[in-house]
Amino acid sequence: MTVTGDDGSLGALIASARAASPGVDLSSGLSLIPVTALAGAALDLRLPLIVTRGGALTSPLPGRAGDGIALLMRLYGATHAVTLLPGGSTRPLGECSADEGLEWTAILVPPLAPLDALASPWAMPWLSARLRAPDGCPWDREQT
Fold it and tell me: Which one, of 108, 67, 70, lies nearest residue 87 by Cα?
């Protein structure tokens, strides 16, 4: 899919993310979700995530999810560095909740390494392959 970059469009947001965080590879895929939909989303933590500001990041989410920042901190950790878009400033995720006055439209959350994302259901194939690898678990290799 090709995305063009007009101001205010999805393409402009992705272009802003690429410019602000050149070390984050968006070509392998990314998740894009409004903060208000975080509680019901099945996120693949191994992909970059762009959270758009559909409301305040500290607005309550349904159920026990808390707020958007609290949910992201449970998934990624409070020290996980995120980039505020379009400006490009980087800060730990835990510091975002206190900064209500920041001028930003989205947050780019870099992916977790597969070993750090084991709680994600998408990590299961990676975990299985790791266990069956030549230097993995002998019992798992026998079972498959």
Answer: 108
